[in-house]
Design goal:
With about 300 residues, this protein is α/β, with parallel strands linked by helices. The protein has a single domain (about 5-140, about 180-255), classed as 3-Layer(aba) Sandwich (Rossmann fold). It has helices at about 5-15, 30-35, 40, 60-70, 85-90, 105-110, 130, 145-155, 185-195, 205-210, 210-220, 230-235, 240-245, 280-295, and strands at about 20-25, 30, 50-55, 115-120, 135-140, 200-205. Helix 11 packs across helix 12 (about 230-235). It is globular and about 50 Å long. Belongs to the sulfotransferase 1 family. It comes from Lates calcarifer. Pfam families: Sulfotransfer_1. Its EC number is 2.8.2.-.
């Protein structure tokens, strides 16, 4: 599907776009279109050569997808502009009003190996991925920055449920009843399974601190080998500035009735530590106390500043 036809499909459906309600699937709140198509999603059988990119929303998903696409195409920027991100790397579970193609629709038209995106927590990933021993890359972002980014995304994405209270009114403690569920359950679920399932578990903060090192880790995990020059090029092409200006990666293909980027850009800041501009000392203390309780059973080395 070309960029034009994908954009046109969204444009045609935009009149019927609403803030879709959440319906729990095995205890995880998902948008109603996803929940209503759950049996087909759960039954999806990937090819063993497919690669899964899993994240909690707003944790560096699009960034990682672009890195992978460039690695697969030896750093060729023009090839990687063949279509917008959701066409090159379909979103497994996403379902929207017709004529917008679902993730499953797009995947049916692609030959393996495919790069497949998901925000599903580990327990909801179709079991075929693990039965077929697919490679999977998980990217985790520290809870405070992730929540800030999700808050702005909730406001600009007009398919997300109403974001509820303002930041000042308590959004900062609303970390569970959002699409795709609890951040805590999400990051822990993949963490405890990472060795058994051969999941490459990456941290957004590490990627920001030393993108070259993390791109090389992704390359080795994918059993690829590209030159140092190509790695340098990928580092440059996937900088926040270049990604934000890339129409095939910045979701400008999604019209304003769906993603209102006048409220907040899809690619807003891409920083580590932006939470300090949002949390008051009192909010931060309350959040930290809850965080300690939620994370007491694991030792995941998150950093809130670099």
């Amino acid at each position: 599907m070309s960029e034009m036809s994908y954009s046109e499909a969204i444009q045609k459906a935009s009149a019927s776009i609403t803030r879709f309600p959440l319906i729990p699937v095995r205890g995880v709140p998902l948008m109603n279109y996803i929940a209503n198509n759950w049996d087909s999603i759960w039954a999806f059988r990937p090819d063993p050569s497919d690669l899964l990119v899993a994240t909690y929303p707003k944790a560096g998903t699009t960034w990682t997808q672009e890195i992978i696409d460039l690695l697969l195409h030896n750093g060729d920027a023009e090839i990687c502009k063949r279509a917008p991100t959701p066409v090159r790397s379909p979103f497994l579970e996403i379902c929207s009003p017709p004529p917008i193609p679902s993730g499953l629709d797009l995947l049916k038209k692609m030959d393996p190996p495919r790069v497949i995106k998901t925000h599903l927590p580990f327990q909801l990933v179709p079991p075929g991925f693990w039965e077929n021993k697919c490679k999977a890359i998980y990217v985790a972002r520290n809870a405070k920055d992730n929540l800030v980014s999700y808050y702005h995304f909730d406001n600009m994405n007009l398919t997300q449920p109403e974001p509820g209270p303002s930041w000042e009114g308590g959004y900062h403690i609303q970390s569970h009843n959002v699409s795709w569920g609890s951040w805590y359950d999400h990051v822990k679920g993949y963490w405890v399974e990472r060795e058994k399932r051969n999941i490459l578990y990456l941290f957004y903060e590490d990627m920001k601190e030393n993108p070259r090192r993390e791109i090389e880790r992704i390359m080795r995990y994918m059993d690829l080998s590209v030159s140092d020059e190509v790695i340098d090029r990928i580092v440059e092409l996937t900088s926040f500035k270049n990604m934000k200006e890339n129409p095939m990666a910045n979701y400008s293909c999604v019209p304003a009735p769906v993603f209102d980027q006048s409220i907040s850009p899809f690619m807003r800041k891409g920083e580590v530590g932006d939470w300090t501009n949002h949390f008051t000392p009192e909010q931060s203390k309350m959040f930290d106390e809850d965080y300690e309780k939620q994370m007491k059973d694991v030792n995941i080395p998150f950093r809130t500043l670099i």
